[in-house]
Amino acid sequence: MGKLLTKNIKGMADRLVEEFPDKFSKEFDKNKEALEELKVSPSKTVRNLTAGYIARKVKNTKD
Fold first, then answer.
1. Looking at residue 62, what is its pLDDT?
2. Predicted TM-score of the model (pTM)
């Protein structure tokens, strides 16, 4: 069983992908940089979890 993400992280990631669809890609590192530019995550852990979730979300939707 994997690590579960909270509703807050999923909700924030979903909102960000809807608002800025061109900023995010399938790559985790590029998503981290985009989140740093947008200054939306309060901590490194939240930023990384959000970037990972966005990468998986984009990868699954753009196949």
1. 63
2. 0.85
